[in-house]
From TrEMBL:
<keyword id="KW-0597">Phosphoprotein</keyword>
<feature type="compositionally biased region" description="Basic and acidic residues">
    <location>
        <begin position="679"/>
        <end position="710"/>
    </location>
</feature>
<protein>
    <recommendedName>
        <fullName>Oxysterol-binding protein</fullName>
    </recommendedName>
</protein>
<keyword id="KW-0813">Transport</keyword>
<dbReference type="GO" id="GO:0005829">
    <property type="term" value="C:cytosol"/>
</dbReference>
<dbReference type="InterPro" id="IPR000648">
    <property type="entry name" value="Oxysterol-bd"/>
</dbReference>
<keyword id="KW-0445">Lipid transport</keyword>
<dbReference type="GO" id="GO:0097038">
    <property type="term" value="C:perinuclear endoplasmic reticulum"/>
</dbReference>
<feature type="region of interest" description="Disordered">
    <location>
        <begin position="679"/>
        <end position="721"/>
    </location>
</feature>
<dbReference type="GO" id="GO:0006869">
    <property type="term" value="P:lipid transport"/>
</dbReference>
<dbReference type="InterPro" id="IPR018494">
    <property type="entry name" value="Oxysterol-bd_CS"/>
</dbReference>
<dbReference type="InterPro" id="IPR001849">
    <property type="entry name" value="PH_domain"/>
</dbReference>
<feature type="domain" description="PH">
    <location>
        <begin position="39"/>
        <end position="132"/>
    </location>
</feature>
<dbReference type="Pfam" id="PF00169">
    <property type="entry name" value="PH"/>
</dbReference>
<keyword id="KW-0472">Membrane</keyword>
<dbReference type="InterPro" id="IPR037239">
    <property type="entry name" value="OSBP_sf"/>
</dbReference>
<dbReference type="GO" id="GO:0032934">
    <property type="term" value="F:sterol binding"/>
</dbReference>
Length: 758
């Protein structure tokens, strides 16, 4: 009986080891297929557009963990990935029965074709589900996922490993003692069995002897299992340590190579400027120099071409040296000025009734080693990384959000429209106009502190007033409310997420914008598109907008679909192109919109013919020009804007000091004021002080909440001062809505409820 049980235990141990090996093998294979050991959502063959010579080529695609990767063949999956696109920031567009497009911020565009309409639909469904999950994971990411492992964490990990190793040794010693005492027990029982004892006693001794034998066999099985575990851990531990060291060495080599590349690029660009006279151009003419002899379909780059990387960073904004902000290699610099800071700007509190300022201190010419800061930020959320003010412009994110109102007159005109479809055209133009200020604005705004506010009172001059408040710190979220006596209200809550991808930076605004017209009750909603900043490490910075916007009138059912076309080096189209269609609830197109997000938007009325039906209607060539209406045109930049961060006329006034504003207003932020005045070293020190003060406030709130939980007493979480979180009846989303009281407090100059954040 004991031998049979021993065989069974040994067999079970061997079987368990084999199953573990199979699980390890399966996990390894799954890691090769899906990446990171995560399950593959979908994989299979698709046809990918490569270029006009080779056309569509068959490729093996794998969808896993929010990433779509492709290979030349299934056999390549273990060693060579030809390309990967992140679905969290991608747009998925269906062209026809078998074709669909995946575009990611203009940096990558895949034109794909399935073998059948059913297969195409399966892929699109899987991609949409994966994108939704990826966006959700992006929203729920917390601080811990983006923080690097500190030296304390490494020490703690090493101590834990040492403790585990000592515990395994203790277990082995205990097993040896069990085996020793078990053998002695069996020997004693055998001697006892040899004595002449009554028959009943002999039977009991035999039972005890069998049980002791089973105990010894079980102990031996456990000893063997522990020995196998230690052997497997030691073998794989050495492999993992070796692989980790190789990855570290490779990362160091890559960092050194990229830094050397940045230095070489800087040297070559300087040599080129010294030997060549660049043609003069104005900021408004950028983007027209293209290779017109080469037609395009999306992104022609593919792994089949050897010169792909040459086209990844087109310089579409040519500017002479005297035209301000230049980025070369690993330095950030601006145009220096012979005018002193004191002469450029004097601190004078500006009354809203007086003339607005038209200039700010010129940007100093400070150099900064960009790579030393950015090399540790790849793949991270930039709002959680402390950055020096050298990367900033002297405005906060709240002020940038207020800049959406620069072309508020479009909403004034929309409020006077009797036709909801014509009104929708102006709302669409207003949506596009908010991006016009970004074309040369390559610096980032200051991240607002929790509770920071910004007001813009233009009630007398322009008929509106606006209020923004930072309502959340992680994730960063700002609420905005604007009212106009011309008959409209605009509100929004925007969460800004950004990821540094190495060559480019993706900025993804999350949240819904609402516009309500008082007289008609028309309620419009839409979302923002993805902004991409290219050439982060090497070359001139340039900005692109890409994606689609759907503007919906929730009262009438009218819709407008806007498409921001990503820049393509080979495209014949004008750069920064935007197209749109205005449709009634039945899908019938009434107006077609065409223009660029940095220049202007035109509207064409669709003339329906006898054979036209709904969405297939388009303006005819001979009728298009007759029905063209200029909806919006960008205002020219102020003189010497290139020396003032490319600020528009409105942006130049936003940080001017004003009397009577709240103590939490962005105009009162000291580090931002110091940076505007050119005192960047002091601004960096002040920025660190403010961030540390904010961290202490957050820890104090967390400690109070923990004490309240222990005591069982109620503890209210942080609540914004001027906004409250409600469920929107139209979109069913939770959003912060203005609850009133700010302008009344300003009139009374009662700011007793405002927190001390500066």
């Amino acid at each position: 009986g004991g031998a049979a049980i021993g065989c069974a235990l040994r067999g079970r141990r061997l079987t368990g080891t084999t199953a573990a090996d199979r699980r390890t093998t399966t996990a390894t294979a799954r890691g090769r297929r899906g990446g990171g050991g995560l399950p593959v959502a979908r994989e299979g063959w698709l046809f990918k557009w490569t270029n006009y010579i080779k056309g569509y080529q068959r490729r093996w695609f794998v969808l896993s963990n929010g990433l779509l990767s492709y290979y030349r063949s299934k056999a390549e999956m273990g060693h060579t990935c030809r390309g990967t696109i992140n679905l969290a920031t991608a747009n998925i567009t269906v062209e026809d029965s078998c074709n669909f497009i995946i575009s990611n911020g203009g940096a990558q565009t895949y034109h794909l074709k399935a073998s059948s309409e059913v297969e195409r639909q399966r892929w699109v469904t899987a991609l949409e589900l994966a994108k939704a999950k990826a966006v959700k994971m992006l929203e729920e990411s917390d601080d811990s996922g983006d923080e690097s492992v500190s030296q304390t964490d490494k020490t703690e990990l090493q101590n834990t490993l040492r403790i585990l190793s000592s515990k395994v040794e203790d277990l082995s010693t205990c097993n040896d003692l069990i085996a020793k005492h078990g053998t002695a027990l069996q020997r004693s029982l055998s001697e006892l069995e040899a004595l002449r004892l009554p028959p009943d006693s002999t039977d009991k001794i035999k039972q005890v002897n069998e049980r002791a034998t089973l105990f010894r066999i079980t102990s031996n099985a456990m000893i063997n299992a522990c020995r196998d575990f230690m052997l497997l851990a030691q073998t794989h531990g050495k492999k993992w340590q070796k692989s980790l060291q190789q990855e570290r060495d490779q990362r160091i080599r890559l960092e050194e190579t990229l830094e050397q590349l940045a230095k070489q690029h800087n040297h070559l660009e300087r040599a080129f400027r010294g030997a060549t006279v660049l043609p003069a151009s104005t900021p408004g003419t950028g983007g027209s120099g293209k290779d017109l002899c080469c037609p395009a379909k999306g992104d022609l780059s593919d792994e089949d071409d050897d010169n792909n990387e040459f086209f990844d960073a087109p310089e579409i904004f040519p500017m002479p040296d005297i035209m301000g902000h230049k980025r070369t290699g690993s330095n950030i610099s601006g145009t220096s000025s012979d005018i002193s800071l004191d002469e450029q700007y004097k601190h004078q509190v500006e009354d809203t009734k007086k003339e607005k300022r038209t200039r700010i201190p010129y940007k100093p010419n400070y150099s900064l080693n960009l790579w030393s800061i950015m090399k540790n930020c790849i793949g991270k959320e930039l709002s959680k990384i402390p950055m020096p003010v050298n990367f900033n412009e002297p405005l906060s994110m709240l002020q940038r959000l207020t800049e959406d109102l620069e072309y508020h007159e479009l909403l004034d005109r929309a409020a006077k429209c009797e036709s909801s479809l014509e009104q929708l055209c102006y709302v669409a133009a207003f949506t596009v106009s908010s991006y016009s200020t970004t074309v040369f604005r390559t610096s980032k705004p200051f991240n607002p502190l929790l509770g920071e506010t910004f007001e813009l009172d233009r009630l007398e001059e322009s008929g509106y007033r606006s209020l923004c408040e930072q309502v959340s710190h992680h994730p960063p979220a700002a609420a905005h409310h604007a009212d106009s006596k011309n008959g409209w209200t605009l509100r929004q809550e925007i969460k800004i997420t950004s990821k540094f991808r190495g060559k480019y930076l993706s900025i993804m605004p999350l949240g819904t914008i609402h516009c309500v017209f008082h007289s008609s009750g028309n309620h419009y909603t839409w979302k923002k598109v993805t902004t991409t900043v290219h050439n982060i490490i090497v070359g001139k910075l340039w900005i692109d907008q890409s994606g689609e916007i759907e503007i919906v009138n929730h009262k009438t059912g009218d819709k407008c679909n806007l498409k921001f076309v990503p820049y393509s080096y080979f495209s014949r189209d004008v750069a920064r192109k935007v197209t749109g269609e205005v449709m009634d609830p039945l899908g019938k197109v009434h107006f077609v919109l065409l223009g660029t997000w940095d220049e202007k938007m035109d509207c064409y009325k669709v003339q329906m013919g006898p054979g036209d039906n709904g969405a297939e209607a388009r303006p005819r060539a001979h009728e298009a020009e007759d029905s063209r209406v200029l909806l919006w045109k960008r205002n020219p930049l102020p003189k010497y804007a290139e020396n003032m961060y490319y600020f528009s006329e409105l942006a130049l006034t936003l940080n001017a000091p004003e009397n009577g504003t709240a103590p939490t207003d962005s105009r009162r932020r000291p580090d931002q004021r110091l940076m505007e005045n050119g005192r960047w070293d002091e601004a960096n020190a002040e920025k660190q002080r403010l961030e540390e003060k904010q961290r202490l406030s957050r820890k104090r709130r967390e400690a109070e909440a923990a004490r309240a939980t222990e005591d069982g007493t109620p503890c209210d979480p942080y609540k914004p001062l001027w906004f409250e979180r409600k469920k929107d009846p139209v979109t069913q989303e939770l959003a912060h809505v203005y609850k009133g009281g700010y302008w009344e407090s300003k009139e009374k100059q009662d700011w007793s409820l405002c927190p001390d954040i500066f």
